[in-house]
């Protein structure tokens, strides 16, 4: 049976919505468009919908604008029809409808993140705990205590016990066997890294070793360590070791592939820091590629490092990447269209409206409020008095007539600067909304069951400040 949808919209967006829906190919649903009687679709409220909406008799779902603020469950109960929130932009409807309106599930993953505190030995225990809590909040599953060469870690056992008391899973990374044994005695869960020559340490404690080749790059050595661990009946993880670019990177990728061929079911770990830390590139893209490799090779563990300031959000990036890759792998699909969290500098569809769309919208405006939008040709600002387009937003100022209105001038300056930055970078701009930087910045929680509060400049104007 063909599904019948009702799309709710406002005056200004109706023509654009009609055009997008009419242009859909191989459409497997029928639809009605209902102008709910407000100028801007995002301003419709629950009460307006309850008063004005007359649902057709045979409707399966009602699609609301993405920026609708209200309780969808209450509307569903009121009308006895499923209400769903669509995408923020009409241009994204084809993708949304292609998924049948199904939300992407990013709640699952199959990758464990070890987050290393590289200077753990130099930090007092309280500061170490604070850092560990932040890493766990960011998505780390295991807190890895890094031990620095020739740097005493006298409070190692105290640190392990304090972290364990917090309910955290702990690993210790050291080339010093005495430090690793002290960590095992204190209750560490994992030891990084042991070889065929040092594996006996793990057999004496209830601890899981991460095994590496005794000789760099020697998979035969790693194989002997695997056999020893199996004979001892202990759990283990293997790390063929990822090397930096121009220092064995390509060969090390081959080792991971060969290791998986030799040992199809062995748990593996990849340390991504040699790429994210030692490459001057935004770490989100590097992370996406490496976790794509982990997904293909069923590598279930990564060791993540943040030393360089440019990897400040590396744990969050790994967390988002593992969820995207898991969802895409489950669907047998490319990792695109699932979530924009790793698209931090550029957007896949930066300009949801064409110049013609904006010109058509501008021709319908009958008030003095400024609308700001972007298209491929630049930044557009328009109201009833005119429509200006440019690529240097400072050039707009003489024509805006706000020289004596400080609050309005401040607002327009901030919004136009934001719009120009977005246009230059190829990012999506939405008036009155922050630019989306993915997981590169802490993500704002947005309660869409309530109307947004007035901004600072509007509040100041109303209060006469």
Automatic annotation (TrEMBL):
One example of a Gene Ontology biological process annotation: pteridine-containing compound metabolic process
Coiled coil: none
This protein's name: Dihydropteroate synthase
The Pterin-binding domain, residue ranges: 94-359
Pfam family, one: DUF6513
Lineage: Bacteria, Pseudomonadati, Pseudomonadota, Alphaproteobacteria, Hyphomicrobiales
Source taxon at top rank: Bacteria
Signal peptide bounds: none
Organism: Ciceribacter ferrooxidans
InterPro entries found in the cross-reference section: Dihydropteroate_synth-like_sf, DUF6513, Pterin-binding_dom
């Amino acid at each position: 049976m063909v599904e019948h949808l009702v799309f709710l919209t406002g005056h200004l967006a109706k023509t654009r919505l009609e055009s997008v829906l009419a242009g859909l190919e191989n459409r497997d649903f029928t639809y009605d468009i209902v102008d709910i009687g407000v100028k801007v679709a995002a301003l419709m409220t629950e009460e307006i919908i309850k008063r004005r909406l007359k649902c057709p008799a045979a409707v399966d779902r009602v699609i609301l604008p993405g920026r609708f603020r209200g309780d969808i469950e209450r509307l569903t109960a009121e009308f006895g029809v499923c209400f769903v929130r669509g995408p923020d932009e009409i241009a994204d409807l084809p993708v949304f409808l292609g998924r049948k309106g199904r939300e992407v599930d990013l709640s699952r993953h199959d990758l464990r993140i070890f987050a290393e505190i590289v200077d753990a030995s130099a930090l007092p225990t309280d500061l170490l705990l604070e850092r560990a809590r932040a890493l766990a909040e960011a998505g780390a599953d295991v807190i890895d205590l890094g031990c620095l060469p020739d740097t005493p870690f006298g409070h190692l056992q105290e640190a392990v016990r304090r972290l364990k008391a917090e309910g955290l899973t702990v690993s210790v990374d050291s080339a010093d066997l005495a430090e690793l044994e002290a960590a095992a005695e204190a209750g560490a869960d994992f030891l990084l890294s042991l070889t065929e020559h040092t594996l006996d340490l793990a057999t004496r404690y209830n601890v899981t070793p991460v095994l590496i080749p005794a000789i760099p790059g020697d998979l035969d050595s790693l194989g002997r360590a695997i056999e020893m661990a199996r004979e001892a009946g202990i759990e283990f993880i293997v790390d063929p070791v990822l090397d930096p670019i121009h220092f064995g990177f390509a060969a090390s990728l081959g080792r991971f592939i060969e290791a998986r061929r030799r040992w199809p079911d062995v748990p593996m770990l990849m340390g991504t820091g040699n790429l994210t830390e030692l490459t001057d590139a935004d770490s989100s893209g590097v992370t996406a590629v490496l976790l794509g490799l982990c997904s293909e090779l069923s590598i279930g563990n990564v060791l993540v490092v943040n030393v360089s300031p440019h990897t400040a959000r590396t744990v969050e990036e790994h967390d988002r990447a593992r969820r995207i890759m898991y969802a895409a792998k489950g669907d047998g699909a490319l990792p695109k269209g699932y979530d924009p969290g790793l698209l931090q500098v550029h957007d896949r569809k930066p300009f949801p409206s064409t110049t013609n769309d904006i010109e058509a919208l501008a021709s319908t405006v009958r008030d003095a409020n400024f609308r700001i939008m972007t298209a491929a040709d630049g930044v557009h600002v328009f109201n009833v008095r005119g429509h200006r387009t440019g690529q240097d937003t400072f050039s707009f100022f003489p024509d805006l007539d706000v020289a004596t209105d400080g609050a309005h001038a401040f607002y327009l300056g901030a919004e136009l600067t934001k719009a120009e930055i977005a246009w230059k970078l190829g990012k999506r701009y939405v008036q009155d909304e922050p630019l989306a930087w993915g997981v590169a910045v802490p993500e704002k929680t947005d309660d869409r069951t309530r109307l947004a509060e007035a901004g600072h400049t509007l509040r100041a104007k109303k209060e006469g400040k």
